[in-house]
Design a protein that fits this description.
- The chain is of the alpha+beta class.
- It is 23% helix and 41% strand.
- It has 3 helices and 6 strands.
- A hairpin with a 4-residue loop joins strand 5 and strand 6.
- The protein starts with a strand and ends in a 6-residue tail after the last helix.
- The mean pLDDT is 94.
């Protein structure tokens, strides 16, 4: 299942050269990831309040291909790449039209209130299209 989320580049997103500051791509994919989770029916506030579980980035691989600039509208595409009992792997790409600007592979884990790793809840695995093992 592919999820798309459009973001306009604002002046505050750019650096002195007028291009998107590299770290802001991480903000863009974070927003899109939150929208993806919401779109599959997971309320992260309820997950934390009722189950004491949050998602956290464990690993990120990123490639920067082309710059985005002020006032561009970019699309962040999020897709599930893999799912295990303990990890959620996503691809997240940022494009402008047909041009790929940024590509990433993100590994998420679930953490308890104490910051300890825990299994991805089975019902969330089912919403993501897999079954927890």
């Amino acid at each position: 299942m592919m999820h798309s989320f459009d973001i306009r580049v604002y002046y505050e997103d750019t650096d002195l050269a007028g291009i998107v500051y590299y770290a802001n791509y991480l903000k863009f994919i974070e927003r899109a990831r939150s929208e993806w989770v919401r779109s599959i029916g997971v309320d992260q506030a309820v997950l934390k309040a009722e189950h004491g579980i949050v998602f956290a980035v464990r690993r990120l691989e990123a490639d920067y291909m082309l710059p985005a600039r002020f006032d561009d509208v970019v699309t962040v595409s999020t897709a599930l790449k893999g799912l295990t009992a303990a990890r959620i792997m996503l691809t997240q790409d940022v494009s402008r039209g047909h041009d790929m600007l940024f590509s990433s592979l993100v590994t998420l884990v679930c953490l308890t209130d104490q910051g300890r790793p825990t299994r991805v809840p089975a019902d969330i695995c089912q919403l993501m299209g897999g079954i927890s093992k």
